[in-house]
């Protein structure tokens, strides 16, 4: 499943998403994401809530949950515009 939106870090408790039509939405934590593939003990299709957002020194977006810290690229954000 390919993303039809782009994601940008906004702050430790929010992200900005822009859909393919150019609509912008700011999501505040906690927000729900779904795992795209088996990843670090999470199963494909599993939904979790992101408690905090972070970035690496290389500007890679990170999702911080009660079960760990994960790269955002392994998840689909559950949001509607």
Short description:
With 81 residues, the protein is mostly beta strands.
Describe the structure.
Strand 2 (14-19) and strand 3 form a beta hairpin. 0% of the residues lie in helices and 53% in strands. It is globular and about 35 Å long. The protein has strands at residues 5-11, 14-19, 24-28, 31-35, 47-50, 52-55, 61-65, 68-71, 75-77. It is built from no helices and nine strands. The strands form three sheets. The protein has a three-stranded antiparallel beta sheet, with no helix packed on it. A three-stranded antiparallel beta sheet has the order 5-4-9, with no helix packed on it. It has a three-stranded antiparallel beta sheet with strand order 6-7-8, with no helix packed on it. It is an all-beta fold and 81 residues long. The protein has a single domain (5-77), classed as SH3 type barrels.
């Amino acid at each position: 499943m390919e993303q039809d939106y782009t994601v940008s870090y906004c702050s430790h408790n929010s992200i900005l998403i822009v859909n393919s039509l150019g609509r912008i939405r700011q999501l505040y934590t906690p927000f729900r994401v779904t795992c795209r593939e088996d990843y670090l003990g999470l199963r494909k299709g599993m939904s979790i809530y992101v408690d905090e957002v972070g970035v690496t020194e290389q500007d890679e977006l990170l999702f911080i949950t009660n079960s760990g810290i994960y790269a955002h690229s392994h998840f689909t954000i559950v949001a509607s515009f």
